[in-house]
């Protein structure tokens, strides 16, 4: 029903406006008596065989929602009710920021893709914290953290520290985002020295806590093999808990849609092969010494299984969820059970 009726209607409107409309619609739908139970029965797959223990956390199933969809932790309970095993909020920054000027979100229908140059638009970490206080452990939450646009790179560590401390009591794991192409010079923080310094600082903060939280690094798909080897070395040196591969790409290779020239990060089907290649490279070259969450171009159960086979322990959806709807979550979990 989603692909035949709902998606054609939604795709008639501006992508960013329809995103907020969908949020409002979902929130109201879950308040209708019996609707939450109906949607859970329709899309959620409950089976002990789907449970995964990764970096010390128990996931009810290995299919999560990637960061960027529920930036401000406004809809994590409803999204979990559609069958996701975990929800990653953010990217959050210390101070609220409006992000880049609109229009900044573009559908590439012919390519089953999206280009965004949102620019870490969010209401700030403290606003998200207030919403996360209502979680009560019902939903496994990842906290994706970044820096404010006005913060120079040499002071970026302080922004990540602020977000880490504020979110610590309310999230289950952290994701350090230094790979978005939409904040000026952010990707320079992926270089070996600044990245090692940033991760070591967060690890030191973590070590002071009574119950430490896993810290993951989200990387770009545009890194060279040499840079990926550096990432493996950094992960092993800093002893962080894992990697999310991958963020959006700045590549435009092979695109057909008229919006292909827009600036920003590309997500969706064109990223399928490259993100899987990165997962496989990291897994093989590191001898699977750390967990990987696979994300990028998952539009079918087959795409997800390929990422798991390549070395991912868990997968995340974003653009595939927009194009395929919640049935995709169910399809992946059912396919995993058949393996």
UniProtKB/TrEMBL annotation:
Superkingdom of the source species: Bacteria
An example molecular function term from Gene Ontology annotations: dihydroorotate dehydrogenase (quinone) activity
Active site: 180
Top-level class of the enzyme under EC nomenclature: oxidoreductase
EC code: 1.3.5.2
Keywords: Cell membrane, Flavoprotein, FMN, Membrane, Oxidoreductase, Pyrimidine biosynthesis
One Gene Ontology CC term in the entry: plasma membrane
Cofactors that this protein relies on: FMN
Cofactor binding notes: Binds 1 FMN per subunit.
UniProt cross-references to Pfam families, sorted A to Z: DHO_dh (PF01180)
SUPFAM superfamilies, A to Z: FMN-linked oxidoreductases (SSF51395)
Binding site for substrate: 71, 116-120, 177, 182, 247-248
Cited function: Catalyzes the conversion of dihydroorotate to orotate with quinone as electron acceptor.
PANTHER family: DIHYDROOROTATE DEHYDROGENASE (QUINONE), MITOCHONDRIAL, DIHYDROOROTATE DEHYDROGENASE (QUINONE), MITOCHONDRIAL-RELATED
Family under the similarity heading: Belongs to the dihydroorotate dehydrogenase family. Type 2 subfamily.
Name the UniProt record assigns to this protein: Dihydroorotate dehydrogenase (quinone)
